[in-house]
Every structure is written in structure tokens, then in C-alpha cells.
Write a structure and sequence with these properties.
Length: 301
């Protein structure tokens, strides 16, 4: 070996001889780690979950007993009291609902009373106006009749002027003086024989009221409300339709000859007359025909 390479090799050998073996470096450190592991295993095995749970349960029971939180009869009574309070609250709610419903019902009843009173007041006002109109018409009719009687009592002139066409009012006044029948009334809208009294009255009407012979007359039918009227053949409907003036003339003729024609009552324009010149309002029946707006209805005795 060359002297330059021998010296470094000897130096390395000397330093490696001074370093201790790896297994004998720190025996105390390894011994301490082993002791710690053994202690940890002993703690885990010696105090398991069951033991810890039992200890915790014992402590909890002891703490609850010291604080006075154990189950008692008073707790059960309190639970029952809470149930009773809930029932009482529900009962009060039901009573409140019933009270509110009763208030609404009372308000509706009060409104119905007000509506009825208003309707009665309006009907009374209409009745007063109709009675005033009827009195005025009767007075005018009486005045015309007096004038006609005076004219009839006056002597006729020797030479009459050229004849002129009579006015409708004059024709009605002339017809009002007579109940003689010159034309037989044709009662086409009927379901059976009409009573002779009603037939004679209808004959007088079509013979003495201008225009009455050209309208439809309704007689016997079973669907009427009054059994003593249409079903018994003692009633006649004078269907004037839109000719209200003709309906007024037919009614006026019956008023003027109430007893001669044997009139029991007249219905016209939602009114009823049971004695001459006195009208009484009727309830709304729902349609113009049912309210007798398009025809006078006359019941005969």
C-alpha cells in the first residue's frame, strides 16, 4: 500500500472505533417508552365503557336526588292540570266562535227587519198615491156622468149639425151607461166551460168597451191559485198586453157596473180591488204576466 493512502485509512478506522454500537446507545429511553405503553394498556383495559357508564349513571342519579328532581305525584298532577287547561282553552275558543256567529245572525235579522219596514213604507206610499188617483178618477167620472145627464135632459135642437166621429172618451162614457150585450164574447183561451155569470159579464164588456172585442180572453183553467176563480169558471183574463189604456177602460167599466156585472174583485197592475175604487198593493210574483201588468183579471160572484 502506498504511504499516502495508508494514513487516511488509519484515521477513518480510529474514528469509527470511538463511536458506540447502535443497540447500546440509549437503553433508558427505550425502557421508559415500554413502561408508558404498559401503563396506557392497563388504564384502557382496567376502565372500560361499562365501568365508565356505571359510574356516570351513579353520579347522575345522586345529583338528581340531591336536587330533588326525581319523579313525584306532583309532576303527574301538573301534567293533568296542563291537559285541563288545554281543554278549557278549546272550550273558550268554541264559545267565542258561537258568539261571533250569533252576532252575524243578529245583524242579518236586523237588516231583514229594516228591509221589510222599508218595503212596507214604500207600499204604503204607493197605496196612498193609487187611492188618490182612484178618487180623482171617480170624481172625474162622476162629473162627466153629471154633464152627460144634463145634456140628455136638455131638449134636442130641430136640426142637428153634421155628425162627427165620437171621441174615445165619449164612446167609453156612452158604454158606461149600459150593460146590454150585443156581442157574444169569444173566450178562446180556456180549458173547460165557463160559468154563465162570467160569460154574461164578458159579453157586456166586449159589447160596450171599444177595442175589447179584439183581444184574447182567458177563461177556465186548473192551474190558478184561487179555486173560486179560473178553476170554477168564474174568472176572465182580459189580455190587453201593451195596451194599458184599454186595460184601464175595462177596469173602469167594471167599477161603474160593479153590482150589475156581479164583480167579486179585480186585479190589475199588481193591485187588487175588492170594493169599487179601493186598491190594495200585491206582492211581486216575479213576471209581468204574474203581476197582471198585461191583463186585468176579474173574478165574478
Amino acid at each position: 500500500m502506498h504511504p499516502r493512502t495508508l494514513v487516511p485509512a488509519l484515521r477513518r478506522t480510529t474514528r469509527s472505533d470511538r463511536r458506540p454500537p447502535a443497540a447500546a446507545r440509549r437503553p433508558a429511553l427505550y425502557l421508559g417508552a415500554a413502561a408508558s405503553a404498559a401503563l396506557a394498556v392497563n388504564l384502557v383495559v382496567g376502565t372500560g365503557p361499562d365501568a365508565q357508564a356505571e359510574a356516570a349513571g351513579t353520579e347522575s342519579v345522586s345529583v338528581a336526588r340531591q336536587l330533588g328532581l326525581e319523579a313525584s305525584p306532583e309532576a303527574a298532577d301538573a301534567s293533568r292540570d296542563l291537559g285541563a287547561l288545554s281543554d278549557l282553552a278549546a272550550s273558550r275558543s268554541s264559545r267565542e266562535d258561537a258568539r261571533v256567529a250569533a252576532q252575524f245572525a243578529q245583524v242579518a235579522a236586523d237588516q231583514a227587519v229594516l228591509d221589510r219596514q222599508r218595503a212596507e213604507a214604500e207600499a204604503a206610499a204607493r197605496k196612498a198615491a193609487e187611492e188618490a188617483a182612484a178618487r180623482k178618477a171617480a170624481e172625474e167620472a162622476a162629473a162627466r156622468e153629471a154633464a152627460q145627464r144634463a145634456a140628455a135632459a136638455a131638449p134636442a135642437p130641430r136640426r142637428a149639425p153634421a155628425a162627427s166621429a165620437p171621441s174615445p172618451a165619449a164612446g167609453l162614457a156612452e158604454a158606461a151607461r149600459s150593460v146590454a150585450a150585443t156581442v157574444r164574447a169569444r173566450i178562446s183561451n180556456t180549458a173547460g166551460a165557463i160559468n154563465p155569470r162570467a160569460q154574461a159579464a164578458a159579453d157586456a164588456v166586449v159589447s160596450n168597451v171599444p177595442g175589447a172585442a179584439s183581444i184574447t180572453l182567458g177563461g177556465t183553467r186548473a192551474s190558478a191559485a184561487d179555486p173560486g176563480g179560473h178553476p170554477s169558471g168564474l174568472a176572465v183574463d182580459y189580455m190587453v198586453l201593451a195596451n194599458g189604456a184599454l186595460g184601464d177602460a175595462i177596469v173602469a167599466y167594471h167599477v161603474a157596473h160593479w153590482n150589475e156585472l156581479g164583480v167579486e174583485y179585480v186585479i190589475w197592475k199588481q193591485r187588487m180591488m175588492s170594493s169599487p175604487g179601493v186598491w190594495k198593493p200585491m206582492a211581486d210574483r216575479g213576471s209581468p204576466t204574474a203581476n197582471h201588468m198585461d191583463h186585468p183579471h176579474v173574478n165574478y160572484r
